[in-house]
């Protein structure tokens, strides 16, 4: 039987897709701005943003037009050749950040893989062949390649695949004393998310990040910021590190970089980059003209004072609504995060029902995320309107009342 639009259903997923996901029972087919429609025509307010990816909403007209124009020019040339969109995007990223050099890939995991390889390669080739230790944090998440999932501090994602990459140490997040206890002259890098996303939307404190910078300087280690989720305006700055005068040596970004088109980047300084040479690392699709052209359009829109200031206004709208909802239903113990990466931690009596909260929210027309085991995560478009926020929150109020039986 041939596949047609009429028999492409959610049930087909269970027959043909590797069983590593458990997607919602509805199938989205169209999106515009912060609204999505499924196969039945039902409308949803999107508070999930494709896990902080669709930073400009669905089908932003500038991104659509950019992709259309580039699709009629050049799709792919590989790393054997360079291309204009990649060069323009790299220049815009370096001009907007601390970095001098950029490496393009296709996902956050690939950007982090490149960052961790660079950190070890730089340290072992310029300082000491024994300088290989990487310090990372419990509940961190850095991707699903074997190296990145091992650096990530969640064994549930890395166990069961045989021997893991060695010389990676995990300590508690926001615990500077724990870092001091394990850092030494063999440490090549400390890897940290400014806000742990999958770990429960847990922000790093300024004292913690400043202490990490000082320890890296003291031990000739590199400070690696994983901004896959916090980058591209998500926190109200182009990158989260820009809220403080604490500059990393390597930064990774993905998710919102392409506004929904797969692309990632690793940024670093000239001093560190020059340790590499042709052939040391690579990727076939990285720097793809289609992806880079869309990402260039996205950064042009996002790296704008008015838009970035609007992120904080939208943060306030959402938090105020969540606080009012909590005053009525008493379901959260705290609401935390920065910009439009917000986590609402469920009270202990509801923490085991997080999947139910998300499922019932969908039934009431709201797309929502989890973060960790007991946190509801909000990562909507940076352009989401106040009307969409209010309607989405009104729908959530009804959904939560249903879950807790009020």
Automatic annotation (TrEMBL):
It catalyses: N-succinyl-(2S,6S)-2,6-diaminopimelate + 2-oxoglutarate = (S)-2-succinylamino-6-oxoheptanedioate + L-glutamate; N(2)-acetyl-L-ornithine + 2-oxoglutarate = N-acetyl-L-glutamate 5-semialdehyde + L-glutamate. SUPFAM superfamilies: PLP-dependent transferases. Pyridoxal 5'-phosphate binds at residues 108-109, 141, 226-229, 284. Keywords: Amino-acid biosynthesis, Aminotransferase, Arginine biosynthesis, Cytoplasm, Lysine biosynthesis, Pyridoxal phosphate, Transferase. N(2)-acetyl-L-ornithine binds at residues 144, 283. Binds 1 pyridoxal phosphate per subunit. Coiled coil: none annotated. Its cofactor is pyridoxal 5'-phosphate. It is found in: Cytoplasm. Its EC number is 2.6.1.11, 2.6.1.17. Pathway: Amino-acid biosynthesis; L-arginine biosynthesis; N(2)-acetyl-L-ornithine from L-glutamate: step 4/4; Amino-acid biosynthesis; L-lysine biosynthesis via DAP pathway; LL-2,6-diaminopimelate from (S)-tetrahydrodipicolinate (succinylase route): step 2/3. Its main location: cytoplasm. The keyword Hydrolase does not apply. PANTHER family: ACETYLORNITHINE_SUCCINYLDIAMINOPIMELATE AMINOTRANSFERASE, AMINOTRANSFERASE CLASS III. Homodimer. Belongs to the class-III pyridoxal-phosphate-dependent aminotransferase family. ArgD subfamily. This is Acetylornithine/succinyldiaminopimelate aminotransferase.
């Amino acid at each position: 039987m041939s596949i047609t639009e009429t028999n492409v259903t959610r049930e087909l997923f269970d027959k043909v897709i590797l069983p590593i996901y458990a997607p919602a029972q509805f199938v989205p087919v169209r999106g515009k701005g912060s609204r999505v429609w499924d196969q039945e025509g039902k409308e949803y307010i999107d508070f999930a943003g494709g896990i902080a990816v669709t930073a400009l909403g669905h089908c932003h007209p500038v991104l659509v037009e950019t992709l259309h124009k580039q699709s009629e020019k050049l799709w792919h040339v590989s790393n054997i050749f360079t291309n204009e969109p990649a060069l323009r995007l790299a220049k815009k990223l370096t001009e907007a950040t601390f970095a001098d050099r950029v490496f393009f890939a296709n996902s956050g995991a690939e950007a982090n893989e490149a960052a961790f390889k660079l950190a070890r390669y730089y340290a072992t080739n310029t300082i000491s062949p024994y300088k290989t230790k990487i310090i990372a944090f419990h509940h961190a998440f850095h991707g699903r390649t074997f190296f990145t999932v091992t650096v990530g501090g969640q064994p549930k994602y890395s166990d069961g695949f045989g021997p893991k990459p060695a010389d990676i140490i995990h300590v508690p997040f926001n615990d500077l004393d724990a870092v001091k206890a394990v850092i030494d002259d063999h440490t090549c890098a400390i890897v940290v998310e400014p806000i742990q996303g999958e770990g429960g939307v847990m922000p790093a404190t300024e004292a913690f990040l400043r202490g990490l910078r000082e320890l890296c300087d003291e031990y000739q280690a590199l400070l690696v910021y994983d901004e896959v989720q916090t980058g591209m305006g998500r926190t109200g700055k182009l990158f989260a590190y820009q809220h403080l005068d604490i500059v990393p040596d390597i930064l990774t970004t993905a998710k919102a970089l392409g506004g929904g088109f797969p692309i990632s980047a690793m940024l670093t300084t000239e001093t560190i980059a020059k340790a590499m040479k042709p052939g040391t690392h690579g990727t076939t699709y990285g720097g793809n003209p289609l992806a880079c052209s869309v990402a260039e359009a996205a950064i042009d829109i996002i790296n704008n004072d008015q838009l970035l200031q609007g992120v904080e206004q939208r943060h306030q709208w959402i938090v105020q609504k969540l606080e009012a909802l909590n005053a009525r239903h008493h379901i959260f113990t705290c609401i935390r995060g920065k910009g439009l990466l917000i986590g609402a931690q469920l009270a202990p009596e509801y923490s085991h029902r997080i999947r139910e909260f998300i499922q019932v929210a969908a039934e009431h027309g709201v797309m929502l995320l989890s973060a960790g085991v007991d946190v509801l995560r909000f990562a909507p478009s940076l352009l989401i309107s106040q009307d969409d926020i209010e309607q989405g929150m009104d729908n959530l109020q009804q959904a939560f009342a249903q879950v807790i039986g009020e």
